[in-house]
Each structure stands twice: as C-alpha cells, then as structure tokens.
Predict the structure.
Amino acid sequence: MEISTRTPRLQITGVYKGEGGIGYLPLEGQGAFNVSMVDVTSAWMVYYREVALPSSPPEAMPEDADEASLGMEVETFALDVMPAKVSYYFDRFLDGDNGLGEAPEVKGSSDGN
C-alpha cells in the first residue's frame, strides 16, 4: 500500500545530544533543535500481510461475525519526505557553548587588504 500526502508546513522540535569528531578535533553539542520544512510531499510505503486474528470468546462476538477474522500485520514501513525548502536551528551546536558554533568576525575588504 502506498499513500502520498502534501503538507504545507511541517515543523519538528526537540532536544538533541551529539558527540563525534573530525580527525583529532572532538566535536560535541547538546540543546534544543528546530527543523522546519515547507511544501512537503511525502510517500508512505507500507508492506503488510494478512494474519488470522485469535478468536474472541463467543460472548464477545457479534451474532453475524465470522468464526475466523483476518487482520493486517506490517512487515516493512518506509517514508520518503521531499520538502521544497528546509531550515534548521541547533542550539549550542558543536562545542556546547557556541564558541566554535559562532562564525568569527572577518575584517578586511574585498581587495584583500
């Protein structure tokens, strides 16, 4: 089964903690994050199989119900999200106090002086 949707705006917020590094340079950060997506098209792929449901006690079943009922069990689920635009914000990114996360101020002119 495949379901396609279009959402005008999707926003995800939460808290993150990350640790890692590039070569010998350790990088870490933790804090709040926000990811905003605009004009989001998504495709949901659900692969399932039919399964027999356990029989209910006779007193719990309606009079016109079949003895054996079928249900659905999800085997695989995949989600493909395709936004037109994405913006994101990570608080205290890289070093935990934004010392590395903030861009250094560059002084000079376009002619190299």
